Amino acid sequence: MSLQPTFRVDVTKEQFIFSAAHFITFATDICERLHGHNYGVRASVEGPLDENRYVVDFIALRDAVLEETQALDHHVVLPRDHAEIKITSDEKETTATFRDRRWIFPNEDCVILPVINTTAEEMARVIAERVIERTKDKFGNAITWIEIAVDENQGQWGVCRMPWPQV
Ligand SMILES: Nc1nc2c(c(=O)[nH]1)N=C([C@H](O)[C@H](O)COP(=O)(O)OP(=O)(O)OP(=O)(O)O)CN2
User: How much is the pTM?
Assistant: First the structure.
């Protein structure tokens, strides 16, 4: 049996670092105080080599990730799908509540993500889905998977690896 090599590109750039505020719940009853992180991101894509002998162009992957990290930079990141953190917005402000606690932010300071909890893992999933949307036409069907890793605190990574959609 001949062993075939596999190929992957990894892109992690200082430019990907984004500063965002969030709070999560854990152990059912504990809701963190609002706090911030300088999040880091690494993006990896695996697949065969193309005619350039690339898996994908680093630059195209970098630019797609950067669109997503810049959209989060200097925002409060809130969960859309949490059972107890309720998010409502009017024309000016976004209000988050958890039981008897309440946080009010200007709308333009908030990004509401389709997640249950704004953990590094969930943020990695959302970035992965959005990078796929941005690049799937360009990268084509040969890619096998994408992995996005989000670093919350200099070495605490949440990682989401997902199969590349075949269309
Ligand atoms: N698997 C995961 N575990 C934890 C996550 C996560 O996203 N995925 N997130 C948290 C909290 O957000 C927590 O705030 C992590 O922040 P950190 O600053 O690292 O926590 P500390 O309070 O210990 O930080 P100091 O370095 O002491 O300031 C927890 N777990």
Answer: 0.96
